[in-house]
Amino acid sequence: MSSPANSETDRLDPPTEYLTLENGLRVRLLPLRMRQLFRLLRIVTRGGAQYLPMLREAMAGATSGEDGAQVFGTQLLAVALLALPEAEDEAVDFISSVVEPAELSLGSDKAAIARNEGLRVELGTELFNPDPQDVVSILEAVVTAEKDDLVALGKRLAATWGVATKTGQIQPDQSPPPSPSTEPTRPSSAASPVPSTSSPAPTAGPTRSSSLSPSPA
Question: Of 16, 31, 130, 160, which has the maximum CB count within 10 A?
Answer without folding.
Answer: 130
